[in-house]
């Protein structure tokens, strides 16, 4: 097979001492930037880009892409240990990862997250290896209506999942959408809800909001309750890794489903963030034990991590094959390609075989090396929980402040983070869920842009969402998802079983989101 | 433990770069930077301004043109308004330069942003970017005339034209073409030129007016066709880019019946209140930059028009250019009135 | 529902119902304010699709409606009236971390991030954690120095700095 030959050639390019060393350095640096909140994949790669200017392109991309793999792995660490997503795509990992850590299963959660990441990445790399040309053309079929349909599907798979009171879910969603709309409106070019303030011009960055909503509020809550993070008694032994692995095969459906979602959303640039949410939602929806999601189920860690990494990896494909970045990090790498004198686009695969196949080979090796390195550090990271609260809490707050600042180099964002911390604390204690808000915050403006771009032109009308097979299928699927609970009931009725679930508890106590 | 290991590796890598920079800084200007210089990019990651900043960073560091490192900072909020306002607020700070494009005119006009380029210190214009009329390679339009005829036949607005942002250079150009050729498009604003390029290849839009650099990849792959360039003369790059065409082979739109010139500056500004010494340092730095092979390669790859406008000449150009923007935007109803 | 074993011993500061009412009222005000701003911008449906204010306006309406519902629900609920939102001593503990954090951010603005984080970490460990002074000072110093090395020196991410860093030429 031609792809296999090319891949072997790629390994040949890669297997020099120099490149292997760069790979290890890249992964370690990547884990570091992934762990530090705010300093995520795109920032990390951008910051280290200057180091590669003097290298040859293959070595440079090996170093930078390995930083990216490292960041993908590292993002899960703080999500699980402190409920602070190190990366935007690890928000969904906190939903079950942090409860697991609280139950003393931090090591299990970390192992699951890393292994799932690895699984997702490898699935995506295999896709890139064998189906690259076909996928590249598939991505071209996405216009505004298709993009909107994908976002709609993400939202619809999410609605109706929460156990919180309906009006509180609505509040959270609406608030997220409104915050996402602050700043410049793409379609009309107007400024919205900025009230003449310069600081509001840039809008609310997702990461700043998330660091505050999750990280700062968690410290406040931890302080209120026990003056400590829970889960200190976690038994930390490397054998945990092995034991966790033994339980993973039984979740093969979740792993495969999330990989498929991730690959698809990464290629179409729906992005790793949408993928992680959708992976989590679908796992919850189709799990026989869906009610226990959010209370520390290992499936709830596997699903988003697999999807996020499959998406993060496959997002590189449209960049290489079409010259369009599937993610923020890919956008920075794209800039790098040009600096090294390469022209991304359809001809890259033809003209720069060494580079392309070297990169693909580094995806395999980089992920294997990454998995080994992060697994070896599981005990190290899990033991961080043993550090006295009074020491770790201020350090976390300082890291959060650095992260919030680094996102957009703005002092105002540190204050904003603090504000979001208070909001997060109040919301968590009054039972307003945070997840819908974060989802709306990250995808809301994109969905709105896509919708309004679809409406422009003579064929603009709601019919456009069924104007061809592709968009029609996705839109219909989204509506099915939205009305799934209703459809489920109808099916039950038709069967005449008359089974009734207890009416979803509308209790709005102090249950945590 | 891990951290120190990582840091050591990083140190190893940077060692070369920093060592080279520390020594041998030529002492030519009276003022010399003593801490890192920030290049503010008022645009998103991967866009044309970002690429330019990265190229400058690479060229300056590889050729040791500055004694201190160069840092690229993205401030792309509100179509770059964030970066521009940050420059306004940084009066007297000689460690910040901004890469500017036509947003310096459009933002104050369309959004009433309290910004005026006269409140910054112009250093020099490094290049001008051209605009080209592109259609999908699969479409039947071989020439500009074919295309204009086809648009006229369809009902007004049947042709979708995609571009970067709303009320920005692409939108203004599209509106001008509409007036001159007597046609009507449906303008679809995207977030970036790259997006507009892919959407054209995917046939979601019929036409775009991207800069050469934004479409070059898909042009070389034979997925789009260049109809004409909005300049008074063809681009001066005779080397073949596609199988049978060079940038120079693209006719001017004037020769094709659309008499309109539209170019965009890519210039560098410092904040207000910097000393003449400091301006001299940057003019010297950029003067050396444009001589580097990195910069020349960059110009050719992106098919940019070289420029050496600085000082009073630059101000004169900016004033003329701004008046043109104001006139066109007023005609199209893009100027904020409320 | 009580939040911890000592919740019963901790006299209530405020009931969950009052807090929920306050949160909902704030959200309602926000909704009205944002709704008004977007109405001003144009919240109709033009020939080329929704105007810029369309979605935000109806979202604000949705937010307002949901918070009104929330107010009604909180007023009706007896359960919430008795539920303790936070006890006095628990709230005291929250303030013990929140107030220093505000102070820290203020310091960042005044004297730069690194000095502020040294002061914050050391002071927090001494006064809140009651840990040994030398340990606290050392931890604060090592952490701040490490952050400075990683961000400003190695990664060239420029953090807000103050007079101390300026004295060293940064």
Automatic annotation (TrEMBL), chain A:
Alphabetic keyword roster: Membrane, Transmembrane, Transmembrane helix
DUF112 domain residues: 20-438
Entry annotated with the keyword Protein biosynthesis: no
Keyword hit for Kinase: no
Residues that span the membrane, as ranges: 21-40, 60-82, 109-136, 142-162, 169-188, 200-222, 259-280, 319-343, 355-382, 389-408, 414-443, 464-487
First and last residue of the signal peptide: none
A family per Pfam: TctA
Record protein name field: Tripartite tricarboxylate transporter permease
Lineage: Bacteria, Pseudomonadati, Pseudomonadota, Alphaproteobacteria, Hyphomicrobiales
TrEMBL record, chain C:
InterPro entries documented for this protein: DUF1468
TM spans (from-to): 19-36, 56-76, 97-126, 132-151
UniProt-listed Pfam families: TctB (PF07331)
Residues annotated as domain DUF1468: 23-160
Protein name: Tripartite tricarboxylate transporter TctB family protein
Keyword Aminoacyl-tRNA synthetase: no
Species of origin: Ancylobacter oerskovii
Keyword terms: Membrane, Transmembrane, Transmembrane helix
